[in-house]
Amino acid sequence: MAKTHPQVRSPVLVHEDAVREFCRLARRGYETRGKQEMFGFLFGRRTPEGHLLVRHVRYYRGGTRTMYGISLPLTESRRRRRKLARDLNLRFLGSFHSHVEIAGRITRGMSDVDRESFRSDPAAPLEAVVFIWAGLKRTLRTNPLSVVGYEPSTGYHYRVRFYAKFANGIRRTRVRVHRSGIVIVY
Ligand SMILES: [Zn+2]
Asked: What CATH number should be reported for the domain whose range is 9-178?
């Protein structure tokens, strides 16, 4: 029986440091042999207004990669994420993984396997997918349903999308980047 979550309030907020971490991890996977998908956990909190705020992203190195995704040691991975949440003094909010472009193709959206693993994780109200592909520079328009990024030094494009468990099922949510308030001057 799936645990119910209080209604996820749209948009999801994601701290800009967490956005950079998503991109960094996706890039690390993309640059490995065979272009691996990366997998990990999201930590944050629920704001007083009821929005979920993703504050930190942590890579999880356990698990084995299969043709259909990532197979996890369930007990160990859940123990690990509980410990990380305690250490960070934040709530576990869900998992993320990357989708990498291979030979010009990239899986858009959540696969059936992605949906099933999200659905079967009672502690996760949220799931993030990070897309990475290489391409010629072009202006990506901002979109309330995803966070987009471009890295001039590598030519990589990034897109981060969030899916949440709503009363009527799993749906993509709107997302807004939460700025740290510190302007870095170079
Ligand atoms: Zn996937």
From this structure: 3.40.140.10
